[in-house]
Amino acid sequence: MKWEDAHADTEGGWVSVDDINPEALVVTSVGIQLPPATKPGHVSLAQSFAEDICDHVIHIPEKMVLEIVVLEAHYRHDPED
Predict the structure, then answer these.
(1) pLDDT category of residue 81 using cuts at 50, 70 and 90
(2) How far apart are CA 25 and CA 4, in angstroms?
(3) What's the pLDDT tens digit per position in 22-46?
(4) Which of 18, 33, 59, 81 gives a 20 to 30 Å CA spacing to 12?
(5) How far is CA 1 from CA 46, 59, 73, in A?
(6) Using CA atoms, how far apart are residues 67 and 30, in angstroms rounded to an integer?
(7) DSSP assignments along 14-62, one per residue
(8) Of 28, 34, 38, the residue nearest 46 (C-alpha)
(9) SS3 for 76?
(10) 61 has which bridge partners?
(11) Distance from C-alpha of 22 to C-alpha of 13, rounded to nearest angstrom
């Protein structure tokens, strides 16, 4: 998923308006998308998922989402191999 993040433009202190970068900060995140009802108005991604528990969840406001790409698994590990 690509989304536009809110961010600070400087490391603190005073800055000339002419020195402010006008570009958006676009972030790419990969994770397991949780159901929309998880946090209404947001796209929620979890790093890991097991049965009905998950961890490292981020919630991105829908209005900040630029693109969602669904990935497909092309390799599956078979522990019998």
Answers:
(1) low
(2) 6
(3) 899 999 999 999 999 999 999 999 9
(4) 59
(5) 12, 12, 16
(6) 12
(7) ---GGGS--S-EEEE---EEPPGGGSTTEEEEESEEETTEEES-EEEEG
(8) 34
(9) coil
(10) 42
(11) 18
Q: In terms of residues, how long is the chain?
A: 81
CA-CA distance, 31 to 7, in Å (whole number)? 21
Average pLDDT over residues 40-68: 95
Residue whose pair of structure tokens reads 């536009």 in the numeric block: 4
C-alpha dihedral sign at 51, 77, 34, 56: positive
- The structure tokens listed for 24 are 């958006």
CA 11 – CA 20 distance, rounded (Å)? 12
The gap from C-alpha 53 to its chain's centroid, in whole angstroms, comes to: 19
